[in-house]
Fold:
Amino acid sequence: MTYDESTLAQLTKDAAEIQSRYPVPRSALLPMLHLVQSVDGFVSPDGIQFCADQLGLTAAEVSAVATFYTQYKRRPNGEYQVGVCTNTLCAIMGGDEIWRRVSERCGVGHDETTPDGKISLERIECNAACDYAPVMMVNWEFFDNMTPEKALQLVDDILDGKAIRPTRGADKVVTFKEMSRVLAGFEDGRADEDQGAGAATLAGVEVARSQGWKGAGT
Amino acid sequence: MTKLTPVLSATWGLEKSWTFDTYAKNGGYEAAAKALKTDPADIVQAVKDSGLRGRGGAGFPTGMKWGFLPPPDGGPRYLVVNADESEPGTCKDIPTMLNAPHTLIEGVIITSYAIGCNHAFIYLRGEVLHVYRRLLKAVAEARANGWLGTDIKGSGFDLEITVHAGAGAYICGEETALLDSLEGRRGQPRLKPPFPAVAGLYARPTVVNNVESIASVPSIIGKGVEWFTSMGTEKSKGMGLFSLSGHVNRPGQYEAPLGVTLRELLEMAGGMRDGRRLKFWTPGGSSTPLFTDEHLDTPLDYESVGAAGSMLGTRAIQIFDESTCVVRAVERWTEFYKHESCGKCTPCREGTYWLTQILHRLEAGRGTEADIQQLLDTCDSILGRSFCALGDGATSSITSSIKLFREEYERHVHEGGCPFPRSASALFDYDDTPADAHAVEAHA
Structure:
């Protein structure tokens, strides 16, 4: 392994914290792989060996798990994971065209990264926001009701190094590494940041309010 | 006219709705307080009596599932919440956890107490960062307010909750694949039996329930079984979130008694966009056979939807108007199942691959009449022949769409390609004549 002493010490401390959440150590593997990505920006050979050492597994056993899940990246990932939903509903509502334009602007295709390392582009599957279709995700924050124009502006802002703000989520999209640390279970203090619940989320609540429907037994 | 019944969604629009303070000010944790003074067996019985059925798709009675746990043997028993919401069209658990995570936490506390669990897990898909933040914070707040830890509120009951983020795999929404994933393995389904109730997480007795099922528990305990059963139909009790998406004027979450109809929901949602005609819809996500405008008055409860040839599923209602090509829609869903097949069972792994090939050919105008029959034959070879229902789900849209729209498949053959302009079904105008505009599938 090539981690320097302080990096390894921090990783080891964090890995122990992760393991403490589970009654059986191996359950820590998925968050630990997120942890490795928070340091290396992908699941590196060093990271695989680190997880294996922590959990008493072989590197092959860890690799077998890491390669199963799409969020674990096998090559250095871009600073921003940009996903365009092209599952049926979003695709039909315009996601296919958004994908085409975004891919053209970035000059890369699915599962590829721009040469400057800013954007890794991905055609994503349904991300549970169909009521906001067409949907994009950047580092797994929601960008709802997208159009080609909004999508290209978003990509340009990322490429220009500007801070970007999701439509539902934190005040700004954090980097891939910062996101990975949260996914490893380490809070970043942004839970109370909010852009509003969203019109579609509140659609039924609004109808009930305007009709004076207060629910059963009232 | 059926009226909406916001229960889970009642607090979503409030200031800082996700915080402990807002939740507690609006009656939150009163049900948990009541539960901790009740005999656990009475809570299980109340949930049985309520008729609550699993809100994750299968509709299995929740209380009965709890009742399948073997008697305590002194070892650990687990509650695992399935928060891996990934079924195309399904978008109800994410807003629940984003806007009212404490509803779920309170449900976990009551359920764990009822089944004798001291360590519960919430398995959240990894692709929803802010939801994970909110859940982590909600657990921390619950702990700070004495609702987690040891001897909760002097009851002698201990509970820890671990919120676990997945890493991108639809199959982990299948309960046994979820358990394997939570154990740090590839998320592949297990052969059943044994069922999780007997040998689940770490081979211990385990209850796996969907987010909405568990989030419904506090209201049942707090407001009572009679209140819950006053909503819904004879065998489908209570309220549920109906998620409308697609070509409708006001898509979104509509919480209504089971048995509401799409005609009623559409009226609340402002009707179809531009007054166009409804062509087809999924009653419960992409794994449920398609419905058409002939089913506008079908009561959306488990029995009625089943009798009409589909499944209530997750009440994920994806609505497509007459501008949409059904072959294109089905092709894309099939690509999804091919992508998400875990590869364990041959019929699903190979079958979804070949279905995709055939559908590509048809949509691109290179198909033949025989391809349509081949799709049905391949579906026959998949349905019911694998460990889990992923492959079965893949066949639903294919077989139902051929039954309902066979002539549209034939038009693809006879007219040398898709007869629908793609831009017509999008929400914005664009020029879909460039050569590469239809070529996106090649990347998939």
Q: What stands out?
A: Chain B has three domains: 20-229, 239-321, 326-443. Strands of chain B lie at 78-83, 119-124, 160-165, 206-210, 239-246, 252-257, 278-282, 316-321. Chain B touches chain A through 103 residues (CB under 8 Å).
